[in-house]
């Protein structure tokens, strides 16, 4: 199926600095074929009038958990239920304009199964980068989680084995937990929890596989340890310090902040006492991350875009990560849009494939009603149209 998206408004920074700001974008066989002056050619295929709307590259969420609608941990469920929920999540991501998601830990490695049904064309969903199970050090924090989502290791050898097994099971990237958790009452986010040799073991195996390691890190020490040992993405990055920012400027590693859960967390309906503890803890983290990520942004770092909340709760907080980055970290609209598209594509290894509107790129496109570079609240709504690989899904 081919389409002409007629009279779209383009944002130069997201469109390879294309000289046209109003253009007809022709899509065929999954690709962006041409970007042309609306007055200088005849539209082909199905014509969609996009006047007054801005065409953006499909969005990225580099920190999702496809498995569950629960806020924190999945409840025990059978494989079918987990798969069904993960597929529902995948579908919702597309509805909200996310054409690529990176799963940072899923129950029974369901992200890989979802990725396969999408890649085989059995189901239309976003491009999925699967992180498998989260590798964490043995600790009491894990006992909330059950073993379907987390695997415990202690020491270099166990890490080698875990990393090898996760890749053998189909992981595109390894996710490790390098500092205490924010969302579990017993976690101490300022505390590193892996030894350098354990982190190095994960990176060694990933490098042999031609792949990368992502690390959950709030703590300053954990962030610096991970950067020194070759971890590729620092998730959350709450206490990123000046030393880390200097290293990150070399663009060997990147930050994937996730402000949403720190500021907008629903009570977990477990123990009200736990909720009070978490609320207090998250407030401290929110203040620290706003300050430190503002500094990292002002230093000019290219960051990824992640949310780390269940897509099922997006209906009451769509666009919240955009809003948080702007209001709490003072980021410019265009930079947040770059984070959610071009920079995340670079971080995901999809530069030159998607993340920009350029001829020859995958036709992952969303049409927004208004000018999001001038008014970011445009991103607080669902897209009017979503294309994934040239297929109109919304
Ligand atoms: Zn997460």
Summarize the structure.
With 394 residues, the protein is of the alpha/beta class. The protein is built from ten helices and 17 strands.
Question: Explain this structure to me?
Answer:
It holds the Pfam family Amidohydro_1. Residues 54-390 form the Amidohydrolase-related domain. One of its GO terms (molecular function) is hydrolase activity, acting on carbon-nitrogen (but not peptide) bonds. This is Imidazolonepropionase. The chain is an alpha/beta fold and 394 residues long. The protein is 32% helix and 21% strand. It has ten helices and 17 strands. It has helices at residues 79-95, 110-119, 156-168, 196-208, 220-228, 242-248, 260-263, 272-298, 320-329, 333-347; strands spanning 3-10, 22-28, 31-36, 46-49, 53-57, 59-64, 98-103, 127-130, 134-137, 150-153, 173-177, 212-217, 233-236, 254-256, 365-369, 385-388, 391-392. Strand 12, helix 5 (220-228) and strand 13 (233-236) form a beta-alpha-beta unit. Helix 5 packs parallel to helix 6 (242-248). The longest helix has 27 residues, at 272-298. The structure holds zinc ion. Zinc ion (ZN) is lined by residues 63, 65, 104, 308.
